[in-house]
Specification:
Layout (H helix, E strand, L loop, with lengths): L13 H11 L4 E9 L2 E6 L2 E7 L1 H6 L12 E5 L7 E6 L5 E5 L7 E6 L3 E7 L6 H13 L3 E7 L7 H12 L4 E3 L20 E5 L6 H9 L24 E4 L5 E4 L12 H7 L1 H7 L16 H7 L5 H48 L2
Parallel strand pairs: 3-5, 8-9, 8-11, 9-10, 11-13
Antiparallel strand pairs: 1-2, 1-4, 2-3, 4-5, 6-7, 12-13
């Protein structure tokens, strides 16, 4: 039987207790969002669990979905004494969070999970390692503020595990790299040290990488559904349908996320640079301080690629991420300008209505 649920088990700290004081004075109680589906939230608290909805004020004041509750958020709720849905009246500031540009044409940030200590970037070794994909996921992981770790699952299906690890290390920089096999008993033992009481980790990666299988191994039971990888395209089905936070009986919390077929960056300029430290080191030799390492003359990075001192594919991956981030930045600026105009028109309309009311005899 799992130990009784406490706030400390969920990751509660003295810093969170201090931030919660104004809410506590209103008679609200703390909880942590463990599941969200169609704007209905499952919230865990000390010895309690609630279904909850966000208060109207939170929805009204939110400038986008990123300001609504997300899995991993600490929230202030008012339980319904009659046993109905609780009401989320406040969201505590996020310590870390990782997000992406919402899928599709929307220019909006989508928070995947919040208050994470470690992010496992999971890829399967049932097909060749994809360095460019690892780079992309690492940018998102590092942008969150959490520790990013590369996990190569299905090591039992690799033809050369040592070579696969070396390739991941080559693009991972300072990130730790672990090769594991969720299909074997004890096959994920290398990941155990990242789970301690009150610590939260999240798993991200493409469909079919075996994230849910890893979670099940770490939990010691088949809590999450798993599926087979299709033979014809080596892609997995989305066995995880919703993001959810799970408490581990031995200590620690895990957020499993659905596989992402579309992972677009959001506000990751500095993280892209940090993930390509080798490019930054070469950039000191560029003729221009604001060199974009693309078409500018006297570029030390391009010279290194031409001389074979830097991998051409890694350089191409760097340019692709930089251009994508610049494009998203332009979309964000355009969205902000549109919102400002809309707010200005709404404010002007409201002022005219107030003035009209005042001018009435």
């Amino acid at each position: 039987m799992p130990p009784p649920l406490t706030l400390e088990t969920l990751g509660w700290t003295d810093a969170l207790a201090h931030l919660f004081q104004p809410f506590g004075a209103q008679g609200l109680v703390p909880g942590r969002v463990c599941l969200e589906h169609n704007h209905v939230y499952r919230v865990l608290g000390a010895h309690h669990e609630w279904l909850a909805e966000a208060a109207g004020r939170i929805k009204y004041e939110a400038t986008g979905r990123h300001e609504l509750p997300a899995v991993g958020d600490w929230v202030a709720i008012r339980p319904d004494e009659a046993g109905g849905r609780a009401l989320i009246r406040g969201i505590l500031p996020r310590r870390t969070w990782f997000s992406r540009k919402a899928a599709g044409r929307q220019t909006e940030e989508q928070v995947i999970a919040a208050n994470i200590d470690t992010v496992f970037v999971v890829f399967g070794l049932d097909h060749p390692v994809k360095p460019r994909a690892i780079e992309r996921y690492l940018v998102v992981g590092r942008r969150s503020g959490a520790e990013a770790v590369v996990v190569l699952n299905k090591a039992d299906m690799s033809q050369d595990v040592a070579a696969d690890i070396a390739e991941a290390v080559g693009v991972g920089g300072e990130a730790h790299v672990h090769a594991v096999s969720a299909a074997r008993p004890g096959g994920v033992a290398a990941l155990e040290p990242y789970l301690r009481t009150g610590r939260t980790l999240a798993l991200i990666g493409p469909s079919g990488a075996g994230k849910s299988s890893i979670v099940n191994r770490l939990l010691g039971n088949e809590l999450l559904p798993t599926g087979e990888v299709r033979e014809w395209d080596q892609r997995g089905r989305h066995t995880s349908v919703h993001r959810q936070l799970v408490v581990r009986a031995e200590g620690g919390l895990i957020v499993d996320t659905p596989g992402m077929r579309e992972l677009q960056l959001w506000d990751a300029d500095e993280t892209v640079e940090a993930s390509f430290a080798d490019v930054g080191a070469l950039a000191d030799g560029c003729r221009f301080r604001d060199c974009l390492h693309d078409h500018e003359p006297g570029c030390a990075v391009k010279a290194a690629v031409a001389a074979g001192a830097m991998d051409a594919e890694r350089y191409a991956g760097y340019l692709k991420l930089q251009k994508e981030q610049a494009a998203v930045g332009r979309l964000r600026d355009a969205r902000a300008l549109l919102d400002a105009k809309r707010d200005g028109k709404a404010g002007s309309k409201a002022m005219k209505a107030i003035q009209k009311e005042r001018d009435r005899p």
